[in-house]
Amino acid sequence: MRLFEIKYNTFRPLMEAEARIQHAEDIVFWEGSAGAMRALDAIKSLEQGGIQDTTVKWDGSPAIIFGRDEEGNFVLTDKSGFGAKGYDGKAKSAEHLENMLKARPGYAKNPEGYGPFINNMVDIYDEYEKAVPKDYRGFFKGDLLYFNTPEKREGNYVFKPNIVEYAVDVNSDLGRRIGASKTGVVIHREVDAEGTEGPLQNANIFRGNDVLVFPSITVERPADVDNSEIRQLESVIRQNAQGIDELLNVETLTQNQMKDFPQILYAYTNSKVDTGLSGLGGDFAKWLENNSKISDRKKGKILEYIKQHMAAWTALWTTVTSIMKVKDDVIRQFDSHDATVKQSIPGHGEGGEGYVLAHPQGDIKLVPREFFTKANRAVER
After folding, report:
1. Burial letters for 60-69: b for 16+ Cβ neighbours within 10 Å, e otherwise?
2. CB neighbours (10 Å) of residue 365?
3. Which of 192, 213, 234 is the last residue of a domain?
């Protein structure tokens, strides 16, 4: 089976809605057996040309929101400021932004640590204002990749906005655009003048070169996927489809006051990155017992429910584990290929946050949980 490695795509802007993109192995929690098959079919369709774009998942920080309000006033702020209730968080000047950020508890507790961040936010205000056309109405939601033009190191522009460090060939098309810019951002969503949120509509509206709105970086070189693993998993899913769907049936879960069962399974899976992802499902009862956020009454209901669906429970975790195995192998191959953009996590090795696989029924993220998620969870914020 063939996938694609990294290729610079100048035409399709990156359009992730990170909060709405599920891990390939987690889709089964919300979509049942059909979701598991969707994840596998999405991977298989790549070799048939069914889905042509799998893109780098950028690990940017901080999250920013910028644009123009209904009166044309430019605004640059963050998530907290944009949704603020007790104060005006939609900063309409660099001074307004500085005062807002300095009024926060983080600055009062640690002005030396928080101060440079504030200075950087204030410093880029003018660049973003100039980049957004005067007649535009609406806002862009994204993550910063760098405040200032990245340093050159061994023929690459190198920047580390969060956990992942990126190295981009200075002689590549993307590298030349980075060199001409002052600050870079990846835009995930756009909110139009009517308040409707959706993907970025036009990455070409931004003016000048100072602000680089990163295009998507798509994969190009193939990676081999274990077809025998895929076929075996498909067989498991088909044989247990009815049981898995009954286990995750929304109406049944609602009647049992367990509608959040998929979210609980997701939280459990994510917690396993701290202790290793082997044996998924086997220690769920122990994890549940130690979870103070769930009442004892509900814990009892959940465990009894699982006992009633034990065969499906076992098949569910076989499915999750197998998809994760196939996905991780693909990610390792992508990360090892020679490419315009190289990703690494200092102290952890080669590789980054992973990739996003476009799918008409909902994009799917391929994230190395045992690698990226573990490193991300370990950071004190």
Report:
1. beeebbbbbe
2. 18
3. 213
Decide: 167 and 160 in contact? Cβ < 8 Å: no
**Residue 15 resides in a domain:** no
pLDDT for 208-252, tens place per residue?
999 999 988 877 776 677 778 889 999 999 999 999 999 999 999
The pTM for the full model equals: 0.80
Q: How far is CA 147 from CA 173, 210, 233, 261, 333, in A?
A: 20, 11, 45, 41, 31
Per-residue pLDDT, averaged over 66-78, amounts to 97
> Which long-range CB contacts under 8 A does 303-312 form with residues at least 24 apart?
305/256, 305/258, 305/261, 309/243, 309/246, 309/247, 311/240, 311/243, 312/240, 312/243, 312/244, 312/246, 312/247
**pLDDT tens column, 303-326:** 999 999 999 999 999 999 999 998
Question: Which position has the token pair 């204002």?
Answer: 129
Indicate the SS3 state at residue 364: strand
Measure the CA–CA gap between 256 and 251, rounded to whole angstroms: 9
CA dihedral 263, 268, 270, 276 (to 10 degrees): -160
Could you give the 3-state DSSP secondary structure of residue 76? strand
Is there a domain that residue 14 lies in? no
DSSP secondary structure of 259-323 = TTHHHHHHHHHHHGGGT-STTTTTTHHHHHHT-TTS-HHHHHHHHHHHHHTHHHHHHHHHHHHHH
In a domain, 302, yes or no: yes
Domain holding 85, by residue range, is: 63-213
Question: CA 219, CA 253: separation in Å to the nearest integer?
Answer: 39
Count of domains forming the chain: 2
